[in-house]
Automatic annotation (TrEMBL):
VLIG-type G domain: residues covered: 62-305
Ranges that cross the membrane: none
Source organism phylogeny: Eukaryota, Metazoa, Spiralia, Lophotrochozoa, Platyhelminthes
InterPro entries noted in UniProt: G_VLIG_dom, GVIN1_dom, P-loop_NTPase
Protein name (record): VLIG-type G domain-containing protein
A molecular-function term among this protein's GO annotations: GTP binding
Domain of life: Eukaryota
Originating organism: Macrostomum lignano
Coiled-coil positions: 436-485
Signal sequence interval, chain numbering: none
Keyword Coiled coil: yes
Gene3D superfamilies: P-loop containing nucleotide triphosphate hydrolases
Record's keyword terms, sorted: Coiled coil
Length: 489
């Protein structure tokens, strides 16, 4: 890929790349798989795949395709199913086997299948929920499901047994992926559907049992879609059938056990082969309902590129295991914010009613200093008490939540964050107290200066008044003397 993606290639490298691409195309045409998603690096070598598909288009000319992918939990028999269905030789084994995703070209016999396309592209994927990968599995699974669902015209959802309870979180990933596809491709009106294959079902003939399983699956799917749509803020999606074409009576199948007897000495059961053949016919029938058979090799390359770009850009939702987890996290965040805002409001009230009041009633600098020390102590005690109460409430929220096991993973992080936030709130409140104290000190100082000035003005005014009065009296005496003298004259 490094050579293919470099911009300026020497003639020697050009020849080398060309022969590499020719070999890759020949291998693909001879039934070897092309790695779509690198299972080790969890990434798509997009330039390499693009170049291989271009070379393929050059080699086979204008050929049309339909894409079938498979998804399911680890070791649920996905690769075995594809091998049996399309005569492939994908590696199969107990434990974690397929890594990443692989595509394989299957030549289509137009007369036999009734499908007017040249190839069926089969995509095998790594098992979801690999226990070996632990916590890091979430993003990987979501990306894988989005790629598998996004690329395929028909996605086979492989389920071990008839119960869907064990794979409800896998369903959520897939439903979310379908929903995203619907949002992204709404304008293009792409046909997409999926098929649920229940493997290893003993009582395949028990109609009542299988009907119950179908009803339960539809109910689970509808509920999952509703939650996912709410999460994405989409109002017009309520049921699974609002996202893709799906008919439970046709799109849910049950397969017998692969083995007749107990491995390792068991033979492959003819019932399994028969059921797989019927499933294949069903897939072909579903594909026959499609209106658009114009997907070319280069269109597929564009699909892969667009999807991988979207997956790389979308980093938030993919960080969560499923829709329920995303919703639960948002709820936890909301609760945390509510508790924090309440604590901040209480602290603000304390600051105004207690801290600021006490400081503002101080009349001299000494008292002010002592009051600040005292207020700081009281503030620490107040926030310690209220912080503890909030912490208890937060812990109770985690312990008594209906999905306590799901949200438990954030308990430690949130309680530690609350402790940190209480510390920050203490520092901020102390800064506010110090500001109030400073304002009050300036007030006291300016009040003192004002009083001094007033006193000075008063003293000067008094002095002046007395002087004027004295002067006035002497003027009066002189006037009286003059008046007396004139009367004598
Ligand atoms: N009992 C039983 N075993 C099966 C069935 N289908 C497949 N297996 C066995 O289960 C094991 C795993 O099968 P795979 O086809 O590799 O399963 P997978 O889902 O592709 O596994 P990963 O690629 O690791 O996710 C193999 O040993 C198969 O022989 C089935 O219907 N019943
Ligand atoms: Mg496999």
């Amino acid at each position: 890929e490094a050579i293919v993606s470099s911009e300026s290639l020497s003639q020697q490298n050009l020849n080398f790349t060309s022969s590499l691409l020719s070999s890759a195309v020949q291998l693909l045409l001879h039934g070897h798989a092309l790695e779509l998603i690198d299972g080790e690096a969890s990434s798509v070598a997009i330039d390499w795949i693009d170049a291989v598909l271009k070379k393929l288009e050059d080699t086979v000319d204008k050929k049309t395709l339909l894409v079938v992918s498979v998804l399911g939990v680890q070791s649920s028999g996905k690769s075995t199913l594809l091998n049996t269905m399309f005569g492939l030789q994908l590696p199969v084994s107990a434990g974690r086997c397929t890594r990443g995703a692989f595509m394989q070209l299957v030549k289509n016999n137009k007369d036999k299948s009734g499908l007017p396309v040249d190839f069926i592209v089969v995509i095998d994927t790594e098992g979801l929920r690999a226990p070996e990968l632990g916590e890091g599995v979430k993003t990987r699974d979501n990306e894988l499901a989005t790629m598998a669902v996004g690329l395929a015209d028909v996605t086979i959802m492989n389920i071990m047994g008839e119960s869907v309870t064990d794979i409800s979180d896998v369903l959520q990933i897939v439903v979310h992926a379908f929903l995203r596809m619907r949002m992204a491709f709404q304008k293009l009106k792409l046909d997409k559907t999926c098929l649920f294959v229940h493997q290893n079902v003993c009582a395949v003939d028990s109609a009542e049992k299988t009907q119950k399983a179908k009803d339960k699956l539809v109910k689970t799917l509808d509920k999952t879609v509703e939650t996912a749509a709410q999460e994405e803020g989409i109002d017009d999606v309520k049921k699974f059938t609002d996202i893709i074409a799906f008919d439970a009576s046709k799109n849910v199948v049950f397969l017998s056990n692969l083995w007749e007897g107990k491995p390792p000495f068991a033979a492959v059961s003819p019932a399994y082969s028969r059921d797989v053949q019927e499933t294949k016919n069903l897939i072909l029938a579903v594909l026959q309902n499609f209106k658009d058979y114009n997907l070319s090799v280069s269109d597929l390359a564009v699909r892969i590129k667009d999807l991988w770009d979207a997956v790389c850009k979308e980093d938030f939702v993919f960080g969560f295991r499923n829709t329920l987890e995303l919703r639960a996290y948002k709820e936890v965040e909301k609760k945390f914010r509510e508790l924090k805002i309440r604590l901040e409001n209480l602290t603000f009230k304390w600051l105004i009613n207690d801290g600021a009041n006490k400081l503002n009633s101080c009349t001299d600098s000494n008292a002010l200093r002592q009051t600040l020390d005292q207020a700081e102590g009281e503030m620490h005690k107040f926030l310690d008490d209220e912080g503890k109460k909030t912490q208890t409430e937060l812990e109770t929220y985690f312990d008594q939540h209906s999905e306590d096991q799901l949200i438990f993973q954030w308990k430690r992080e949130k309680t530690q964050r609350l402790q940190r936030d209480v510390g920050v709130l203490k520092d901020e409140t102390y800064d506010r107290l110090r500001d109030i104290k400073e304002e009050q000190r300036i007030m006291i100082e300016s009040k003192g200066k004002l009083e001094n000035c007033q006193q000075e003005i008063f003293t000067s005014a008094k002095k002046l008044a007395e002087e004027l009065k004295r002067q006035h009296i002497s003027d009066e005496c002189e006037l009286k003397r003059v008046r007396d003298e004139s009367e004598l004259i």
